[in-house]
Amino acid sequence: MFEFTLSPEPTKAQISGGVYDVVIIGAGAAGLTTAIYTARDGLKTLILERESAGGLAATTEMIENYPGFPDGINGAELLERFRRQAERFGAEIIEFDEVVKVNPIKVGEIEVHTEGGQVYTGKTVVVATGSRPKKLNVPGEKEFYGRGVSYCATCDGPFFKDKNVVIIGAGNSGLQEGLQVLEYAKHVTFLEFLPYTRAERILQERVKNHPKSTLLFNQQVTAIQGDKTVTGVVAVDRETKAEHVYPADGVFIYVGYSPYSAFVADLVETNKWGYIITDEKMRTKVPGLYAIGDVRADNPAQLSVSVGDGAKAALAIRDFILELQG
Amino acid sequence: MALLNDEIVRNVTEMLAGLTNNVRLVVFTTKNGCEYCKEIVQLAQEVAATSPKLTAEVYDFDTARDKAAAYNITMAPAMVIVGARDYGLRYYGIPSGHEFSTLLYGIQRASEGKPDLDPQTLSFLNGLTQPVNIQVFVTPTCPYCPRAAILAYDMAVASDKVIADVVESMEFPELANRFNVMGVPLSVINANSRVEGAAPPYMIVDAIKAALA
Ligand SMILES: Cc1cc2nc3c(=O)[nH]c(=O)nc-3n(C[C@H](O)[C@H](O)[C@H](O)COP(=O)(O)OP(=O)(O)OC[C@H]3O[C@@H](n4cnc5c(N)ncnc54)[C@H](O)[C@@H]3O)c2cc1C
User: Fold this and answer.
1) Which pLDDT band, with edges at 50, 70 and 90, does A45 fall under?
2) Which protein residues touch ligand 1 with a CB less than 6 Å away?
3) How much is the mean pLDDT over chain A?
4) Could you report the per-residue pLDDT of B96-149, keeping only the tens digit for each?
């Protein structure tokens, strides 16, 4: 019944230093996939990660649409396997240090600066930083963060056993995480802004058929109420204009994601939401700088797509390095 | 049946091969409603078996009062990670899931006796004159939590004044309730100032200043 996940910070001695063939920023599905390929190819590969390896997919309990796992697989476990596979081929991973700046010196030399004050140099650099949950920006959201408001049901869901929970946002993530919470919560109310949901049919069916859930559309959340901790969510029905307070001990917000791209915004092209634009080989306009996974423009935020991006970047990098060597 | 599978054992063995000083895992169990005490002892023993520099000791919190008092342990189950000396690294509950990393990092740091912190944070910690207790509330399923826990452990290694208690919230519901913990990680300093989320060192430093003011 217990799982043990190993994501220790390597001691400095395990990091070989010097110039890397590839420095990957972000140890999610995309970055780890590139590392598996490049390290296996004999390229000296470093991954820098601000948290622990795994990325967003590691924050979900059950992944059912990743090929090869007919019974589904726990997100943390799957990504742990990615990490081990990358390390097996010699990729070095540094966790808990955030990249704050990328500085192209010349073709074949790009510096990467971290919050911890380290500077790493790569012949190529891959931005695989994914995205972070969007805020709702309503009164109460900030005040009650950690006091009932959360963006990670896998992390904080267990606090709401036999309690009332509201999930804001009924897209794939909201429904999927809500179904998890339904396993132990007293009741889960899903509030969706749109008159419909774009979530997978199978998830919609499960939520609709669950005896302890309510799924409501056209709901504009205007505030999160509370005293010491959250007590309710205020929403206006966009059709009837009626206001209603939904009692809640816990509120999980799944209203979309925004890309982690600010630290390279001055270097690369982005679309109006800040997602990085690349060509089909994952190249940005800076030679040797690539972007993959959820941080890339027009990507549908799926694990298998991030994995595909990761592989494509690795193959492009191989060619780039061969060319450098002339 | 072993808690750690062969593969994890292999990885842990490799990771802990570089330990410098001996490390003792001092475990306190209790008969008072401890759901996982058996597993915690087993885990400490299995981890200890991966390195000749590691040992596990088990005490009954309810009877070995002196021992508990010596380490300032006021609730159980608890694990104290003791290196060349007791730096103040404690884990309350079972370090499973992502928290297994916290345990291993704690072992590495206690063995080395050197924190991995920036110079500003270190100089602040070196100047501390009053005791600081950092309680980090976590859950095993939280991937962001080891970051907060590890930072607290580093601070404890850096300063004699700092004790870092990492608390598995589900196993200590009363304590979690007392601080209205409904999201993790949450760092509580001297029971009066708090930082939500996996915060950078300067935010914890500010919270320590606020708690001591
Ligand atoms: C709740 C939930 C459920 C999901 N379920 C499914 C599913 O069932 N099937 C599916 O296919 N997909 C699912 N997804 C989507 C899937 O998780 C993503 O598509 C995938 O994680 C994207 O991988 P990535 O590597 O591009 O980015 P991420 O996984 O976001 O990884 C990026 C990494 O970069 C790190 N990082 C960011 N900035 C920096 C920086 N400056 N310096 C260093 N590191 C940095 C981040 O900490 C993170 O670890 C789900 C997502 C969520 C949130």
Assistant:
1) very high
2) A 25-31, 48-51, 55-57, 59-60, 63-66, 98-99, 128-131, 173, 176-177, 260, 263, 293-294, 301-304, 306
3) 94
4) 998 999 999 999 999 999 998 989 999 999 999 999 999 999 999 888 898 899
CATH code linked to domain B21-100:
3.40.30.10
Q: Which residue has the tokens 């504009």?
A: A220
Which strand (E) or helix (H) includes residue A102? strand A99-106
Structure tokens at B213: 């003011």
What SS3 state is found at B86?
coil
Atom of ligand 1 at shortest range from CA of A305:
19
Pocket-testing residue among A129, A175, A253, A292, ligand 1, by greatest number of atoms within 8 A of Cβ: A129
Domain-wise residue ranges, chain A: 12-133+257-324, 149-253
pLDDT of residue A11 exceeding 50:
no
Q: Does residue B18 belong to the interface with chain A, where contact is any CB pair within 8 Å?
A: yes
The pLDDT assigned to A13 comes to 40
Residues near A84 by Cβ (< 8 Å), separated by ≥ 6?
B7, B11
The pLDDT value given to residue A326: 81
Please tell me the CATH code under which domain B119-212 is placed.
3.40.30.10
Where are chain B's structural domains? 21-100, 119-212
Which tens digit of pLDDT belongs to each residue from A198-237?
999 999 999 999 999 999 999 999 999 999 999 999 999 9
d(CA A122, CA A155): 34
Q: Containing H/E element for A254?
A: none
Question: What pairing do the DSSP bridges indicate for beta strands A243-247 and A230-237?
Answer: antiparallel
ipTM of the complex: 0.82
Look at residue A197 and tell me whether its pLDDT is greater than 70.
yes
- Please check the confidence at residue A58 and state whether its pLDDT lies above 70: yes
Phi, psi of B97 (to 5 degrees): 55, -135
Strands (E), chain B: 23-29, 54-60, 78-82, 89-92, 132-138, 162-168, 186-189, 193-196
For residues B90 and B162, give the distance between their C-alpha atoms in angstroms, rounded to a whole number: 11
- CATH match for A12-133+257-324 among 3.10.105.10, 3.40.470.10, 3.40.1260.10, 3.50.50.60: 3.50.50.60
pLDDT at residue B11, rounded to an integer: 87
